[in-house]
Amino acid sequence: MFATQLLGAFNDNLYKNAMVLFVVYQVYSSTAEEARFSAIASGLFTLPYVLFSALAGQLADMRDKAAIVRIVKLAEIGIMFVGATGLVLAWQGIMVETLAIPLMLAALTGLGAHSTFFGPIKYAILPQHLKKEEVLSGTGLVEAGTYLSVLAGTILAGWIPVEAAAALILVLAGIGWFAGREIPDAPAQAVDEKVDYNIIRSSIRVVKATMDEKRVFYAIMAISFFWTIGAVLFIEFPPLAKNVLSAGKEVASLFLVIFSIGVAIGSMAINLLLKNEVSARYAPISVVVMGLFIVAFHLVCKAWVPHQGGLYTIMEFATLPLAIPLMLCLLGVAIAGGMFVVPLYAFLTTVVDKSQTARTVAANNIVNSGAMAAGAIIAMALTSAGVLIVDQLLLAAAMSIGAAWLGWILYRAELAEPALAE
305: which DSSP letter? Predict the structure, then answer.
C-alpha cells in the first residue's frame, strides 16, 4: 500500500508539474495568462473531489479496499496515456492550444478522479490493519511518504525534458498497477449498507452525517483552511518565480520541492512531539507560525530586485543574497503546515467507527476541494483585479488566523471528550 501510494503521488506530481512548467515557461508570456492557467489546472484537478468523493467513500467502506485500488491503478494507465499524448503534441508544437492543452487538462481531471477514489482508502485502510496506537505513526508515514514523492516528482519535472516525462509517466503507471495488485485484502466494513450512486444526494448525506461529530467537523474545517492556503501558494509559485524573482523553471520546481520537504519534516516532527497520541494541542500555534512565515516570505519577495538579463539559473539563484532567507521562510511555512495538518487527519480515522472511516475521509475531501476551488477562484479574481502575485501571499497568511481559531476549538472539544485519549 505504501509503495502504491508512493508511486502514485510521484507520478501525479511528475505529470502535473511537467505540464504546468512547460505551459508557463514555453507557451504563455504574460503573468495574467500564466496565473489563469495555473488556477484552471488546480480547479480541474479538484473538481472530481467535489463530484465523486461521497461515492468513493461509500465504495471504500462497502467494498474491498484492495480491489478498488487495483481498478483505480489500472485506470491510471489510460489517463497517463492521454496526458503523455498531450505532452508530446505540445513538445512538437502541434495544435498546442486547440488539442495539446485540452488533452493535458483532461488527463489532469482524470488524475483528480484517480486521487478521489484512492484518497479515502489510503487513510481508511490504516485503522483496519494497524493497532490504535499505530494509527498516528501510520498516518505520519503516509503523509511523509506522499510529500517525499511530491518532492521527487517535482524535482524531476523541473529538470527532465517534457518528452522524457511523457514516457516516464506511462512506465510508472504500469509499475504502480503491479504494486497495487499486491496489497493485502481489506474487506468491507459496512456490509449491510447499499451504495447510493446519486452523487449529489450522497454528497450531501455523507457531509451532513460526518459533521454531526463535532471533533470531526472542526478537524475538517481546519484541514480545509490549510488546503485553501496550500492551493493559493501552489497556484502562485510558478508565475511568482518567473515574473517576480526572475527565476527559471528549475527554481519554480525547487520551491515546490522545499515545500514538500518541509511538510514531510513537519509530519514526522509532530508524531515525535505527540508520542503517538492523537491530539490537536499543537495545531493552533503551528498554523500561526505558518502564517508568520508566509508574511516573512512575502516581505522577502517584495524586497527582491528583478533581474534584467533574463531568468536566473538555479545556481545563479542560490548565490543571491536574499535566496537563502527566501527558501528558509518557505521551509518554515511547510514544516509548520505539516505539524498542523497531520494530527487532524488522524482525528478523521480514530473518532469514528471503522465502518465509517472512508466516508469520513470522503466528506473531508468534498469540503477540502470546495475550499481549494474557492481559493483558486479568489486567486483568479485578484489577478484579474490587478492585485500583484506577491501581494496575494497575504491572503494565505490571513487565512491562517481562521485555521488557528478552528484548531483551538478542536482542541477544546478534544479535552471535553476524554474517550479519544483512551
Answer: P
258 inside domain: yes
pTM (2 decimals)? 0.69
Instruction: Give the other-Cβ count within 10 Å of 277's Cβ.
Output: 14
pLDDT means per 10 residues, the chain with 422 residues, are 88 89 78 76 82 83 85 94 93 87 94 86 76 75 77 82 92 93 77 76 80 80 84 78 83 78 84 80 91 94 81 86 92 91 78 71 81 79 82 86 88 71 42
CATH code: domain of residue 48:
1.20.1250.20
In a domain, 191, yes or no: no
Domain count, the chain: 1
Contacts of 360 (CB under 8 A, 6+ apart): 57, 124, 210, 216, 348, 349, 352
How many Å apart are CA 414 and CA 278, to the nearest integer? 10
66: domain range? 2-184+198-421
In a domain, 19, yes or no: yes
Helix, strand, or coil (residue 247): strand
Q: How far apart are CA 200 and CA 266, in angstroms?
A: 36
Long-range pairs of 413-420 with CB within 8 A, sequence gap ≥ 24: 413/214, 413/215, 413/218, 414/215, 414/279, 414/280, 414/281, 417/215, 417/351, 420/215, 420/278, 420/350, 420/351
Does residue 190 form part of some domain?
Answer: no
